[in-house]
């Protein structure tokens, strides 16, 4: 069977890859959006923290024999804790300054982390096995669906929607959103805003690490895995509109799919299509698809 | 400074000095934007690198004279700067930085895939040719004065821009854009012109570098190059005239003399970044200027 001259197997295969990339775009841009919302800092370290998540999972397995499922919980906590330390010791000093300094500081931290991992593990990738429960796949008739990949898509959708729910629909989320509007007022109500900021940063970083753990069995675990991805995610964030949680989820998945489709119909453009879309969106809606112009 | 760079080749390896001058001009061009307009572009490597490709291609494949090759590269960056600036100045602050970064990544993939750039290998063995068809540039002694003139010319141009009425308006936009707007200045247009000027000068630096090293490669368009030029400017001193030159000299020397340390160079750069942002925001020249209470 063919659609527009492309075998369905190929088409759906690429769409699946697109959906998986989209899951990672969504998780990462969600983390960026959460951090940006409260700290007003573009977390350039995000790519490195995603990579750390994958490496922590790899180390847990190879040094301590702790498998994938526990890593899903432990790696984000460990990496999130390093995030808390970074926020407490460094980022905290910058809030009164121009936001650009936050970008530059996190960029510097990313260089340090990537350099350290490259020193230790070299540039080549380390393999990470798919957990035993999720090996194999299902034949859907029109395509073969590997179980692990299906799990990644479903899991990241759940995490994204849960995060959205907490921020937009619960009391805790209401505090967070109020604190982004007027921190001193919220503080006056007896809420510990600095601690909330610290924990938010830790949570955003944890999301990046979670994405890293989920990526480990699909891509190889290597020090560079985050550095080029992060720029695509920045483009996703610009397209979605920085302030919007929903925007980052929808554009993350959507752009992954578009990228997959481009790979089928015009492979030469698959690396640049997201940036082209970004340019078009900027021309038509400078604030992004879901953003509001300030 | 002119005297320093004129005498220096007697004591220091001239190719190294030419590299310093190319990066210093690049950093000065970048600083024109962040230091005087307050716009952090995180994609300046696209102008530096693309100009390098165009100059190298013109010199090698079309066989044009070096001055024409460099001019073509510079012109190409100016056009690219016009387009990128048009898209990027619609947003401010961090958004601006991210947009320039993403656009630069697009240019990177273009450079990776376009037929004339040589992909992973880049354009190698670019002939330096004869300046105006007469002066032989193949030796370091021949090339050095050309690079010196280009560098000083670019530097003087930036000095002139910064100290002109146009430069004053740029500084007003940096300090308080709504107020500049309310005074009747079309701030977007001023920012756009500044962006194009900065891109053009970055292109001039990139085209010159391609001829000096007879090589145009992916390293120069990669986003880590954009990060490096930010570091040079930050270390030297944002918004100072001489800061970027000093910063470029320090970073290039560091890369040259610490090269055998491998990945440690990245770590050291990261540490410098962190220290500069946390404790040393004025940079080397900025601190000196602050001590002697004179703008440098």
List the helices and strands and how they pair.
The complex is a heterodimer of chains A (294) and B (296).
Chain A: E1 2-3, E2 6-7, H1 8-39, H2 46-64, H3 68-89, H4 99-121, E3 137-139, E4 144-146, H5 147-169, H6 171-181, H7 183-188, H8 193-215, H9 229-240, H10 245-265, H11 273-284
Antiparallel strand pairs in A: 1-2, 3-4
Chain B: H1 2-7, H2 14-34, H3 45-62, H4 66-88, H5 93-113, E1 123-124, E2 130-131, E3 135-136, H6 140-162, H7 165-175, H8 177-182, H9 187-213, E4 215-216, H10 223-236, H11 243-257, H12 264-279, H13 283-292
Structural class of chain A: mainly alpha
What's the helix count of chain A?
Answer: 11
The separation of the N and C termini of chain B measures 12 Å
Order of strands side by side in the largest beta sheet of chain A?
1-2
Give the overall shape of chain B: globular
Radius of gyration of chain B: 18 Å
- Class based on secondary structure composition and strand pairing of chain B: mainly alpha
> What is the approximate shape of chain A?
globular
Mean pLDDT across every amino acid position of chain A: 87
Q: N-to-C SSE series of chain A?
A: EEHHHHEEHHHHHHH
Tell me the strand order in the biggest sheet of chain B: 1-4
Task: Report the sheet with the most strands of chain B, covering strand number, pairing sense and barrel closure.
Answer: 2 strands, antiparallel
Name the assembly state.
heterodimer
β-strand percent of chain B reads under 5%
Number of strands of chain B: 4
What order do the helices and strands of chain B follow?
A: HHHHHEEEHHHHEHHHH
How would you sum up the major sheet of chain A? 2 strands, antiparallel
